Give the backbone structure.
Amino acid sequence: NAGVTQTPKFRVLKTGQSMTLLCAQDMNHEYMYWYRQDPGMGLRLIHYSVGEGTTAKGEVPDGYNVSRLKKQNFLLGLESAAPSQTSVYFCASSPIRTSHQPQHFGDGTRLSIL
Amino acid sequence: GEDVEQSLFLSVREGDSSVINCTYTDSSSTYLYWYKQEPGAGLQLLTYIFSNMDMKQDQRLTVLLNKKDKHLSLRIADTQTGDSAIYFCAESIGGTASKLTFGTGTRLQVTL
């Protein structure tokens, strides 16, 4: 049971570098989300998607871009990494909202920007 | 706006009951959740409660909801060392996507 898989698990970048975090889910979920987790601040929503080809801004979208070209994948991009983006990033997915359906989370990507 | 608050740390002895508290501000919350995060892992859904319920019990877990005070609690009976983790409460406000607002998390430490 793969569920939600995030790659890579760890990464160290220099300020100004770019990278893409990949999230893949095998549960045929419609909704996908990217969060960041910082000490003492819980999880904050960066961007989310309600279906293939759609994206929307969350609480803290600045400095990030996302794409959902395939239903099973949700990519999070950092075009020019900044130290303030050092965080743990979590991807989640959930089925279409016809009844209560919880979000399923990946194990996270630890990203350090030097 | 939405705001979910939790205390940062709780220490209990093995075998005792743990009570983790959460307050939220949005009275239109539809579902309220408890997630568990073990070190180096993602969030695992423990239980949830619909906003028209007062209590939900699931084995060692009891969730109490006080809508008047906007207060949610998670009680873990017979706490074990394997329960040591960070516990997040979260609320779902509704809309087209199941967006969640998370609390800051409570770190539960279980001592022998």
Remarks:
- The radius of gyration of chain B is 14 Å.
- Chain B has no helices and eleven strands.
- Chain B has a mean pLDDT of 89.
